[in-house]
Fold:
Amino acid sequence: METIKKIFILLGSLDRRIIFLIVGLSVLIPLIQPEWVNFPIRPTPESQIVFDEINKLNAGDKILLSFEYGPSTKPEIHPMAIAILKHLYAKNIQVYGFALWPDGNFMSTEAFSEVSDDYDKKYGVDYVNLGYKPGGEAVIKGIASDIRTLYPVDLQGTSINDIPMMKDVVNIEDFDFVFSLSAGFPGSKEWVQYACDPKNIPLSTGCTSIQVTDIMPYVENDQIRGILAGMPGAAEYESLVEAELQKMEIAGKPGEASGMMAAQSIAHVVIVLFIIFGNISYFITRKKNRKG
Amino acid sequence: MNNKVIMWSVLFLILLGLYILGEGMIFVEGIRVKFAAILLVSITIYYYIDRARSGEEIYLRTIPGLKALEEAVGRATEMGKSVLFVPGISDLDQVETITGLNILGHVAEHTAKYEASLNVPVSKSIVMEAARDICKESYLKSGRPDLYSDDMVHYISDEQFAYAAGVNGIMEREKPAACFYLGKFYAESLILAETGNSIGAIQIAGTGSMAQIPFFVTACDYTLIGEEFFTASAYLSKKPELLGSIKGQDIVKLMVMATMVLTVVLNGLFQAGWINFDILSYL
Amino acid sequence: MLLKRQIPLMIVIGVGLLTLFGNFINNESIRDFVDNDATQWFDIIASFAIFLGALNMLKLQLIKIIKKQKNWQYSILAVAGFAFAIFAGFFYRGANFITIADIQDGQLAIVSGIIAEELNETNPYDIKTKIMGSQDEYEIDKLFMTEGNAKLLMEKLTPFVGVINLKSKPWGAHVQTKGSLFYWMFINMITPLGATMFALLAFFVASASYRAFRIRNFEATLLLVAGIILMLGRVPIGNLIPWWVVSIMVMFGIGAIAAPFIKERKILLGIVGGGIIIFIISGTIMGWNQTPPALLSIPIIQDWIFAFPAMAGSRALMIGIALGIVATSFRIIIGLDKSVLGG
Structure:
């Protein structure tokens, strides 16, 4: 009994470097050997809503895809971007890429180049990348009123008058849906406030886990239709898209987020165990101090 | 009823009436509720500022984080170490950054008084200039302009995590005894707070970024949660007008709560079919 | 004093009131100013202000190097990184591409084959179709960072094409174009560094939770229990936790809450242990092994915590913060709070 108590006391006062090492291993091992651990992914109601909303769109519909994330949040949000693009391309929906963050340009370029060729999508006909403009909310207001004045050229410097799919696009009301891949400010909230709510355009979002509490009030009010919450949300959406692509008999590469969920799950369990050990040690130490 | 209350109420009604009359011509249609709300909030806050100026005593509860400000600087002085002040990573267009810089002024007065060294790494150039002005003014006010140096406030990087890495590096190398995180933060908040914790510094944090408050609460000694952070400049300066505005803010919060209860009740009655008035469509 | 205090104050008050009430005025110019110009002025000022920050950073790092202060070697890296980014953005474009036209008769298949090999494509027929479909000139779908690499391909194609040109993406656009040095730097340096720093949060969350989540009082216990449920419920492993494990956790939670009120430890242990046994036996009898109740499913409890108590708390905090921002902004707009101006 004394030995067990001593072990728990030791576990309760571990050097933080040992904690870091164990957490690091708990993330690394499932990533290196994904076949060792495989957890089924259950889509949450919010992710299902996002999927259903995009699934309702028809071929030829226009979607505004906004990239508001950077390198630091890329592991969480980029898999969502890839899954969304696969879904949109499979349904032959026209994709208009925008960015409210400067880093969004790089993320959008990478996302489009990763997916477009696999689905034989042609730039200017099936997708276009208009890129970043400084101004935050002012850009959203500009998109809501007049895109052509705000974006005379696309990201590569081509005049929008020379891009076939930009022919009938004047402002946000010409879009059937808006999807915001958001990691902060400006992001989904600003899309709701300045464009989608005033103009009644349906909006969905994928965001980092930490932002979910900020955005949930809008989801509850139906101002945002569903939400992909962090990497779990990305994994859930990937599983829904893969099932849909299989139904459509379209071959596809597996998503990244699904493979990372095992690592995240194990890491969470490890943290919970540390908390439990820490508390047991706390009680034993407190009891000892009282007796002493 | 107080004459001033009557006067302000009449003014409110007149201005609202003018707005409704001018709707479509001078004023934008369909947002009269928003206009009325802004007017009501402004008048309420100004009323209490006026009352405070007239000499009314305004009670503010003790905010431990702000009380500990001077203690933290004193601790740094005793240990012969520096004070680190992080005003967040946003630009001067964010109210949190302005609030953070207000508090920086008070911290700088203490560091001038106690002759502790102050280090203010910033993420935005405009914030750097504003912070320099504020620190210079504080050191002048404390009678120690000789201790001020422009290099106290220095730029690191606009990029979020480059800034976090830079500040972490400062913490690990210089080991400040007191760390203040007062401004707008995003994901880097926990990195900064945990590093500060690992070097044994006393940490006081305050932010309006809701998602970061739990991280600061976990890792810092004192955290200014929600409006406590915004009352800081009033609390520290003790100026009657500023204290009055805090009371006005509290009264507005009371009004918001009353409106919420009223809306729930009226909406419930409407849903039950007992009244025909749909308050939600009006709001 | 006038220049430093009064004039800035007048500007703050004037622009503040204009921006606030401009939302309500039905005038095109004012709406334009409020919606577009005001924020764009700020962006322009902030963009030029970057020079101040950059020069300040350079000055401090160079002083460290020149005076060989402590850890001056790291400052060399800082200055080198700065210089490299300037070079990649302003001096070295990269993003070179090749256009071909006037392919000689009977050489289309050879040209397609060469291009397919360069692009690692298995089917040169697709390239052939694209070349035939292009009107003036065909742009090879590959970007080269250096002209040297591009010229190697040009040498292979020159015998078979009439017109071959080496071009670059325009300045400005080159920053976002794959194949440019800046893009390479962003993807291979900035992105991994940013992701690494963000990943540190995982370790810090672990050490912060380990240190801070202690059952010291009722609120701390509530925080702990909610934290554990949310952590497990957000990930797929939460679905695998069986109902009886959840019921054990529930009983432990009840025990932790009741602990300050029940002094006799044996009674507490009895309540917790007895509760666990009763839960498991009754659950087994009621067939919970096949159809567990929603209340004992971690993901569902997590959804409820997220949707109700967490949402209520965050909304209340949001309202408080919003009111704080309103009051602070009001004080600044009416000129009451002059501390930002230095006084």
